[in-house]
Structure formats: structure tokens, C-alpha cells
Amino acid sequence: MRRLINIIEVLVVAGILGAIIYFYGDKVQIALRVLEQRYLPCQAPIQYSLGDFSPKFGLTQTDFIHAISEAENIWEEPISKDLFEYNDGGALKINFVYDYRQEATDRLKKMGLTINSDKATYDALVIRHDALVTQYNRDKAQYDKAVSLFEQRKKAYEKEVDYWNSKGGAPAAVYDRLNQEKIELDMQAAQLNQTQDKINSLVDDINALVSVINRLVSELNLDVDKYNTVSGQRGEEFQEGIYKIDATGQEIDIYEFDNQTQLVRVLTHEMGHALDLEHSDDPTAIMYRLNQASNEKLSQSDIDSLKAKCGVK
Question: Which chain positions lie within coiled-coil regions (predicted)?
């Protein structure tokens, strides 16, 4: 009888576990992967795949997969161990998300500016920002004055046209003069539209600078006020990449990079987080909190942390 009860208990537990796996299978698998990486790290390669991909970066999917492979090798070679493996259905999704972050970087590149996470870059961007704001204030004041004069001239033209229309028509000489005035007003309106487009482009340049400047203020822990956009709003801060794991899965999102070296480095950094490595206080480390473009390989502190995590002597 006791044996029968034990069998029933086992069947009940098995049924409960089966139901949990059936209804929460994905979440259970994610939880198991997290536990495996934390308590049995480096026992099996982390399988990754390419998730969301935007062609706006100007690179192909093959280019991105090659960059991921480079980042993978940076972690694997020092300990001669397979830590990552590409698989079309890999659980770790690596996404390349094109938004205001990369758009800001692309605008700055077109302006001839190179972005590094250092004080020299911050100082150069501030100088460029201040010069563009001065130019914007001057151009905007001239534009506003020109628009005001245009509106006055247009209003006078429309008033005279209404007057002659109420009289049944204008004399030939007046008619010709009003036609010429209409042509000149149309030309002036087109010029004002071109000027407005240039000012809008200038505003976009300034706001792109603000986004990157404010990011550097946070990264470099500078004791300065953050900048506002031309619209008066504080420029959005941004990260170049982020690793996240939650009930929906594991993901690395890459948002911004200035060149191939920075792309590989930010991938390497976020893949380090996927290995459950934390930030380092070593400025030469891949796992340092800043994306220092000069760091293209693991520092000794990175290697020590990796060996400790993987149990490698």
C-alpha cells in the first residue's frame, strides 16, 4: 500500500512538472540556462543567433556575423575553449537596432568628427557645438527678420490685388506690375524654404552633438551641466550596447558604433556580460565600463576574471 502511495506521489509530481513545462516551457528553459551559466559556466558554448537587423547601418548581415565571430574569438583564444557558437536558432539573440543613437553618430561622422570615450573628444564636441549654436542663433535671427519682411510685402500685395479685383480689374500697367510682384514673392518664398531647410539641418547637427556630449558627461563622470537640444529639451543619453535577460529571453542590443573596431569591442563587452562577467575597474579591460576603442584584446584582468568564472587554472 505504501509503495502504491509513493508511485502516486511520483506521478502527481511528474504531472505537475509536465504541466509547468508545457505552459511555461520557454521561461523554464531560460531559467535553466541562467542557472547553468551561473553555476556550471563554460561547460557548453552559448548558442547565439542574429536577431533584429537594420540595413541602415550600411553593413550586411554577413559583416555583422563576422564582427560577432571576431568578438567570440577574443574571449575563446586566451583559454582555448569554445564559449560561443553560432546557430540560426541560438537562444542568445544579437540585435542591431538603428535609432537616434547611431543616427547621431552618423551625422557627426559626416561632419568629420571621430567619437571616442575620452575628455579630448568631449572638449572637441563642445567647441563644435558652441560654434554651431552661435551660427544657428545668427541664421535664425536673419531668417525670422526675412520672414517678417516677406509677410509684410505679401500682405501689401494681397491687399492691392483685392482692391483692384473689387474695381473689376487693374489697368494694364498695374496688372503687369502685380504679376511681376507675384513672381518675385514666389522666388523669395522658395529662398526662404531653402534657408529653413538649412536651419533644420543645422538643428539636427546640434542635437546630434548634444546626444553624444551628454553621453560622454555620464561616461566620464564630468562635473558639468548637461546640454539641451535646440528644442529646449535635454538631449537623450545613450548606451552603445546592452545585454539583458528576462522572461522573454537573452538578448544583446547593439545601438551605436563609430567604426569596425568599436563594433567588435562593444560586441566583446556585451558578450562578456553574457558570460556572467561584471564590469571591471581596470581602464585597459574589455569589461571596463567605457568602450575604449584602443582596447582590442583582453587585458590580464579580463583573462583572470574569465579563468575564475570558467574554473580554468
Answer: 140-198
Final residue belonging to a domain, choices 194, 219, 244: 219
250: in domain? no
Nearest by Cα to 210 from 132, 141, 289: 132
User: Which pTM was predicted?
Assistant: 0.61
Give the structural domain span for 164.
112-219
Which of 243, 296, 301 has the alpha carbon at shortest distance from 272? 243
Which pLDDT does position 282 carry in this prediction?
A: 87
Structural domain contains residue 73: yes
In a domain, 132, yes or no: yes
Given a cut of 90, whether residue 227 has pLDDT beyond it is no
Q: How many domains does the chain have?
A: 3
In this prediction, residue 8 carries a pLDDT of: 62
Pair 127, 209 in one domain: yes
**Segment among 72-76, 141-145, 171-175, 309-313 with least mean pLDDT:** 309-313
